[in-house]
Design goal:
alpha/beta, 2 domains, elongated, Immunoglobulin-like, 34% helix
Length: 352
């Protein structure tokens, strides 16, 4: 994959390249490297998706892929650039996103459920993994409430709300328990649930701070720009020498993902999940928005699906900490979290 990335970057400098193609777990991704000033438009007609690029050199080619989702693509010169026509196979859907640094267009084509061939059958429900942080021998942050307890309560409430909307929910823990006495193993077992058989993964935590701080913040995986966020990741990753080791491992993954275009596409969807979740929770609770950030949290380091870590508030804040101890406020947190997840599932980031 690193070699492919290097080739794409080199060709991008020349103007416009053949797309990079990757396949995994029932999907095919085509990644087009774009010059900075290029424009594009996309139209679907039948089983063909046409992408017209302007501000790129003209191309003329025909490529047979024959993946389970894409038969192939062809390109021909058009005014100001080229038009690529991607031929999809029957029973597929697609979505697109634009990435930067370097600039790329990603076309993701996925096999639709086999239920499409059986009109009376229902499509499978999306599967959401909720991970109440800590638990058992690890209480997490302690203030007016205990992090592990409030995270579990909010997760259980969110589970009921999502199930009422037809969403299947998997919990990493359903009571005050740990998955392993080893913190590294515990986090690894949770992380393993963010696999391609599920739709998305949300890890639920609560904050604590030496100085007065309050509000909700949401993270998706990546390098920490702020040193304080790196310190936070070390703490959530087990603290001490273990937290430093697991954080270093996670940072290594983050650096490798920079050269993995398919992983970068997934991180873009994680960012959208983070934004939608934060907006809904702030709207529902009236809490301070602390924004969306990236950090090398071990529990979401290898997610193959959109994955975020939500900090629902500060347990030691004199006002917010006491709110976190009330049933009414936890219900609003759960309402917001469920609403954000539903919005993401129903948005343009979901299969169409």
């Amino acid at each position: 994959m690193r070699c492919i990335f290097a080739v794409i970057v080199c060709l991008s400098a020349l103007g416009f390249a053949q797309p990079s193609v990757g396949t995994e777990n029932g999907l095919t991704r085509l990644v087009f490297s774009l010059p900075s000033g290029a424009k594009f438009g996309l139209v679907r007609q039948g089983n063909e998706v046409s992408i017209r690029f302007q501000g790129t050199p003209p191309r003329s080619l025909r490529t047979l892929l024959n993946t389970p989702q894409v038969a192939g693509y062809r390109a021909a010169p058009s005014p100001g650039g080229s038009t690529y026509v991607v031929t999809l196979k029957t029973g597929t859907s697609y979505r697109t996103l634009e990435l930067s640094n370097p600039r790329r267009l990603v076309l993701e084509v996925r096999s639709s459920t086999a239920a499409r061939t059986r009109p009376r059958a229902k499509a499978p429900a999306p599967v959401v993994v909720l991970d109440p942080g800590h638990g058992g021998i690890d209480p997490g942050a302690i203030g007016f409430v205990q992090e592990a307890a409030v995270a579990l309560d909010v997760a259980l409430r969110t589970k009921r709300l999502l199930e009422a909307r037809g969403v299947q929910v998997v919990l990493t823990r359903a009571d005050n328990s740990h998955l392993s006495v080893s913190k590294a193993t515990d986090l690894g077992l949770r992380a393993a649930m963010a696999n391609s058989k599920r739709t998305l993964f949300v890890s639920i935590h609560a904050n604590a701070a030496e100085r007065a701080a309050q509000g909700i913040e949401v993270y998706y995986f990546g390098e920490a720009i702020d040193q304080r966020l790196l310190s936070k990741a070390i703490l959530e990753n087990g603290g001490g020498a273990l937290g430093q080791r697991l954080t270093q491992e996670a940072r290594g993954v983050a650096q490798r993902l920079m050269s993995d275009l398919l992983a970068q596409a997934n991180l873009k969807f994680s960012e959208q999940l983070a934004l939608k979740t934060l907006r809904a929770m702030v709207r529902e609770t009236g809490a301070v928005s602390r924004g969306v950030q990236t950090a090398p949290f071990y529990v979401i380091r290898n997610a193959r699906i959109p994955a975020v870590l939500v900090e629902i508030g500060f347990v030691n804040h004199p006002v917010e900490g006491q709110k976190l101890g009330t049933s009414a406020y936890r219900a609003r947190l759960a309402n917001g979290l469920a609403a954000g997840i539903i919005t993401f599932l129903n948005s343009g980031n979901a299969q169409r």
